[in-house]
Amino acid sequence: MRRLIFGVLLFGLCASVIAKEIPIESFAKKRKYEDVQISPTGDYLAVEMHDENSRRVIAVLRTSDMELVSYLPPAGGTEPVNPVWVTDNSFISQLSITHGDLESPRLNGELVIMNADGSGRKMLTQNRRELLTSNRDRGPKNNLQGYSEVIHNLPSKPDKVLIKYFEFATTRRDKTPKVYELNINDGRVRRIAVAPSYWGEFILSPEGEITHSVGTDKDTFDVVVHSFVEKKWELTGRLSQHEEGTVPIASTLGAEEIILAEKSKDGPEKLYRYDLKGRKKKLIYSHGRVDHRGFLRDPVTGKPLAIHFEPGYPDVALLDSSHPITQAYVSLFHAFGGQRVEIISGSRDGRKLVIKVTADNEPGQFHLYDAESKELRYILASKPWLQGESLARSEAVEFEASDGRKIAGFLTRSEGGKGLLPLVVKPHGGPHGVRDYWEYDDDVQMLASRGFAVLQVNFRGSAGYGNAFETAGFHQWGDRVQKDIIEATRWAIESRNIDPDRICIFGASFGGYSALMSPILAPDLFRCAIGFAGVYDLELMWSDGDMPEYGSVLDYLEDAVGRDPTELARYSPARNAQKITVPVLLIHGREDERAPISQFDQMRRALRKAEKPVESLVVKGEGHGFYLLENRVAAYRKVLAFLESHIGERAP
């Protein structure tokens, strides 16, 4: 039997018995509240939220009584996201387009500004004429056609901000950012600088002056540091690439220091302070098991105060233990019993802080913390309709794979079940650049509420465990990656009260691929398979959908799967349908651009040709994942009915 290592929560892992069945709609509904940004004076909150039609809007609430003051609605097929306060009474939002539930909103490059009271709404950068607010409005006085984000509110120029700007590009090497000074009244811009290196980050003084740029040499891929002297760039430092690479992180410690993440050849990253003037680096942290997951920052200055990391459960490493915000954070972290605590925004004087708390059974709570009085005030819940419900708990687990590599994951179980539990294995999407965390998941909680245990596996190829672990999944999609999932399932049977005769695998995107590929390699392990928006023919990724449109994605495919037709066929479920011995359910959006409907057609056709049992649900108007509530509910009902018929209590 393989050795098991698992964490134990200090505040208790056992959940109470779920007394009543939670409606499917409660899991299918999107989070009502996503983000909360407090204004510089602390008088207003800009809240990114979903309206009754599941569209994103920005609502402005008065902090004192949480009353609605105004809101920024969707317009012209776009939705506002990522509000940033640029004056005491106005904020700028980026605009996005959403193609499906499995995709993050795609920023379309446009910026809109609005006052807290709803007045003064206008476009500051614009690609489309239909968003003009009136016939007299001729749009912003600039021709920016790319991605923009606010990087500094210039304190000495109240009507201007600095933005970082990328022209829309198709390849990695086109990514050379520029900095513009943007007039928030009329959209006029003045170019300040062009980064001297590819993917260059700009280092700013507290006053908003550019002091340095840190980026990558296009030819050698060394990290290069340039100083901005009299509006000209001077090369002042070079860090030669290690075999695995060094990456500048966009987090400054002031105008003279940055943090670098150095990728290790055989382990997770190491974080260094780098002195831009002295050209020296000093190790500040290395976890030994996982990469970092963001920073605790001073919300006013942006200075990193601590490092978030999650080997299983959330933890933190302090960089500045004497800072008042760090001390407040430590108290809050302990007060919330080890849940993930983030300080996501703060007033200019640092007194009012917005705190977000999440956990495996907590979609998200927002609190307002008064740093002076030490008072904590609850303000919003991401999914208020789930407050008070007994949700299942997730256990962080780790086992040793057959080749000796440690594989981590999470096992969620409903305490209401008796005897051996049916199991749904739920591999994540990606597969690279993504991992599962100890956090709330609609699919997991929906399944657990119906009595199924759920296993999530951070198989090799997942992000967050070091570059070597992630690249170990390259060219292994249909082999070692699936073996990690299969071996994790067998570990759960041996160690965690799982019924070996009632196991199904269900995944979306790459998880959908795994849901069809794992049963091919382990035909006797699973009783059914569900693929949602999956990729089933690897060769089609090179020609169909939106991936071939982007040079950077083609580079990724070259690294991840290659072009060898023999290997692509061997690792494609649609080319091996005759080896599938379990009933299959395929769910897909007809307008999916990432995993186009041709992937679904190819898989279903192959299963039917091989005379394998297959059910399907295809929804018009949906993309990569289902966006509308009624379609999400329909998909959940289809999944549950399928699971009940094959691994439920009445299954044969």
From TrEMBL:
UniProt key word Protein transport: no
GO-annotated biological processes: proteolysis
Hydrolase recorded as keyword: yes
Pfam family, one: Peptidase_S9
Classification via Gene3D superfamilies: alpha/beta hydrolase
A Gene Ontology molecular function term of the record: aminopeptidase activity
Highest taxon of the lineage: Bacteria
Domain Peptidase S9 prolyl oligopeptidase catalytic, first and last residues per copy: 438-649
Keywords in alphabetical order: Aminopeptidase, Hydrolase, Protease
Protein's name in the database: Dipeptidyl aminopeptidase/acylaminoacyl peptidase
Record organism: Microbulbifer donghaiensis
